[in-house]
Amino acid sequence: xxxxxxxxxxxxxxxxxxxxxxxxxxxxxxxxxxxxxxxxxxxxxxxxxxxxxxxxxxxxxxxxxxxxxxxxxxxxxxxxxxxxxxxxxxxxxxxxxxxxxxxxxxxxxxxxxxxxxxxxxxxxxxxxxxxxxxxxxxxxxxxxxxxxxxxxxxxxxxxxxxxxxxxxxxxxxxxxxxxxxxxxxxxxxxxxxxxxxxxxxxxxxxxxxxxxxxxxxxxxxxxxxxxxxxxxxxxxxxxxxxxxxxxxxxxxxxxxxxxxxxxxxxxxxxxxxxxxxxxxxxxxxxxxxxxxxxxxxxxxxxxxxxxxxxxxxxxxxxxxxxxxxxxxxxxxxxxxxxxxxxxxxxxxxxxxxxxxxxxxxxxxxxxxxxxxxxxxxxxxxxxxxxxxxxxxxxxxxxxxxxxxxxxxxxx
Length: 411
What we know:
Distance between the termini: 20 Å
Number of strands: 0
Number of helices: 15
Radius of gyration: 21 Å
Strand content: under 5%
Structural class: mainly alpha
Mean pLDDT: 81
């Protein structure tokens, strides 16, 4: 299609963003939230001395940023259904830039923790709205491909962010990491200004903002959608459990250095990328989710057995690699099927989908550290895998309420 080259003022809504821009932009938005939470993890020890506080207080910054990511998606999802995608995106970026600058100059740990909640809330806008934009712009197989890209990044970003943060920490301090996040925010702000609204006024929610709870009530009543949400949340719980436990298991139990630990992180990130990419090879996403759920259950049981029996690092890492491959496979298929099942309320559905993952992650992360970390981690993996498998199989078996969403895909 031909585009007007000079559409700077008053006609930006008529200009269409290219598919390449959309994929890059959506990918960056998806990675934004995980980078906000995880990029500064390597700097936690130095922050304890900087703020003259305890390790647990510094870790509260991570907990509150995850809670902000969950709360922010609940906020920005319905707002994007009501006001369109572009305005809430710009607001979230402004909020992020202000809170990130404030983090750099936080006078004490208490203020820093509060600002991390605000920062997480702002970062949530990018995650939830990116899925909604994909649902606005793509259908069928194209939607699956778009969500495969964002799903892969969403799964890989929490794993790779600490590695990048560690590299930055070699040349600067924890404040340098937040300076990098600020620059990332500026780039995304530029992308938001270039982005053209994907939700027309005729398709926006007519509900008053005070009635946004009605939108959540609608999506909560979609049984198949909710099963996919829960399947994804339990899959993400495995990921966050891995992130919380792996530094202690690999460095303390197996005796590897922090640099070697970052290499394990990178390898496992590759596993998740491969899994997310492989998902689009399936003719039916339902087949993909059954495969991933079964694989997660088997691999979780094997990882649990390996940790309990004191298996070598080769055995443990090999099993973990396959487990995270299955988790990546699950991310894409569950996200695609969930968003198709609630297309009519895409913003709200995306909000609940994203918030549940971070909420489950915030619950599971401290659980893997209870008692013997080898046993608690293995058992947590198995319990989450069983729950994910049950939810995934139930969702695939149910044939109800998605009929309207399925019909819309053919339009």
